[in-house]
Each structure stands twice: as C-alpha cells, then as structure tokens.
Amino acid sequence: MTLRNDRLLRALRRQAVDCTPVWFMRQAGRYLPEYRQLREKYDFLTLSQNPELAAQITLMPLQRFELDAVILFADILLPLVGVGVDLEYTASGDGPLIRNTLRNAADVERLRVPSPEESVPFVLEAIRLARPLLDGRVPLIGFAGAPFTLASYLIEGGASRNYQRTKAFMFQERVAWRELLEKLTHLTSDYLRAQVRAGAQALQLFDSWVGCLAPSDYQDYVLPYSRQVILAARSEGVPVIHFGTGTAGLLEAMREAGGDVIGIDWRIDLDAAWQRVGPKVGIQGNLDPTALLGPWPEVQRRVQDILDRAAGRPGHIFNLGHGLLPETPLENVAALVDYVHEHTQR
User: Fold this and answer.
1) 207 lies in a domain?
2) Closest residue by Cα to residue 163 from 101, 109, 219
3) For the whole prediction, is pTM greater than 0.70?
4) Helix residue ranges, H only, 17-93
5) Up-side HSE of residue 33: CA atoms within 13 Å toward CB?
6) What is the CATH number of the domain that holds 72?
7) Angle at 299 between CA 293 and CA 301, to 5 degrees
8) Is 310 among the domain residues?
9) Do the beta carbons of residue 49 and residue 81 sit within 8 Å?
C-alpha cells in the first residue's frame, strides 16, 4: 500500500521533505481522554496483550492531530516476560516492577531467549492489525528497548536514580554482564526484525537510561551490543532512530552505533548536537515535555528556537526530548503540530 504521507520516512533518510515531520513519544497514552476511558476498564498489561485494543490505541492520536507517524502501543519490557522474569505494571502508574531481579551469573544463565513469535505474538499481531487500519495515511513505527536499558531494569527491578546496582554488576561481573548483554542483543534484534516483517516501517531503539554512564564505560560495556542490534534492524531495510536521555556526553559514541537518526533530549541544543554527530545522520527532537504544560506563547517560542537551530536541514524530525506527560493540554499538542508544519514549509 502506497503511503499518502511519507514525510517521516524521507526525513529519516535525510531526503527533502515539504515540511518538517512531527510525532511524539507516548503520543498514544494517558494524556488522551479516550485512552483514559479504556484504562478504567482494562489494566495496562491487558491492553498491551490484546492486539485489537493495542491497534486501536496506536491509531488514537490520528483522530485528533495531523501527525506524520504513529508508534506502536506497547512497552519496552514486554519481551522480558518470555525470558523468565516476574514483570508487574502497577496500578499506581509508578512504572513497571520486576520482582525476581538479577544478582549473579547464575541468574543470567537461567534467562531464556525465546523467539518473538513465542514471547510476544500479541505485539506482532497488533502491528498486522494496525497497518490496514492506517490505510496508508502515515507510517507505523515499531520499537524496542536497547540491551543496556533492559539490563538495568532486570538488575534494578525498575527505574533508578543512580543505577548503582547495574553499574556494580557491570564492573564486578564482567563475564556475566557480557553474557547478559549478548542474550538481550539476540532478543532485541529478533524482536525488531519480527516487527518489520509484521509491518513496521521504521524503528526506534530506546536506550532510556544509558545517560547514567561515563563515555568510556559506554564504549566498553554498551556500544558493541547496541551496534549489533541496529545492524540487525537495518538489515530489514527500514531506517532506525537511536534514542536516549541524558546522553549529551555520549553522542559521538551513539553515532558509532549506526542509527540513521539520533534522538536527543532537551539537555543539549539541537544545533550543537548535530554538529557533534555530523551531517551523515539525522536528528530527532528535542522539546522539553514539560514545556507543553505552559502557555502557548512560551511553547511557540521554544518550538521556533528548535526549528531555527535545525535551519531546514534534511533529516530533522520534530519530537520531544522524552514522552508526552499525562497532564499535557490537548490544545498545545494540536497547536504544536500545526505550527511545525506551517512554519517549515519548503
């Protein structure tokens, strides 16, 4: 099926576009009233594991906004259910919890690496259902968590402030760390390839927590595995976005991992980031999500500053520096999308 709006895919390949494409991380989520209505009936895991509901949620943002892509409704930790961990999504919304965390080499050795068709068939079916529902309007983005971020969840049991346990494991259990990252690389590579075969037209690799590392530690303990995942994903012929938060000190190393586009957060100016990664990759970002909680004139000023820094260069995709917050006003989201399109027309 021919895409009626291929703006995002062209930008991902640094090709000319009629205006800057825009989409948002967590754009199918808790800021939408229709999503909140579903959550009153179903918990998060039920929604994620029901392909019909997941496909429906994936398309929800298009009912309100002229976005240039949808991203699959899922969670980066879903593939971990099949490896043998006790994963729970709390009703309070504090984030996922893993009860049986990894503590030693024996724990790593026990981890399985099932195929995505075995562990997350519902995710692949959601993609297969969403594609015809999109009817060629915009592309569908698939995604996965990067090996380091998945490892940090497995070791910490959830999000962490300083990732002390993860770093201690990494430094003290070097052989087990390598085995863990190899397993997660295999898991993630197969998962992303399966998403493309199911119908995903672009991919994003989320290394959400890798910004906690020093550049030298990223080079030694993470980069080889991220590179393997991105190579595997790109072998399916789709572009890949490599995203992390707090990664201003890691941009050159992230570029080495081989993504087509580097996703950045608001902690670095977009033009400075692009200068560091060079012209052969695109840049995605990078509005602070909390800016959308303010009055529109202030949002507009910040959006225009980002567009000025991008300067119309091929390969810019407008996004936030992380996901939309539940409190985000819908009118600001709509105004932002329209503003980017109207003020970047070529």
Assistant:
1) yes
2) 101
3) yes
4) 33-41, 44-49, 51-59
5) 5
6) 3.20.20.210
7) 155
8) no
9) no
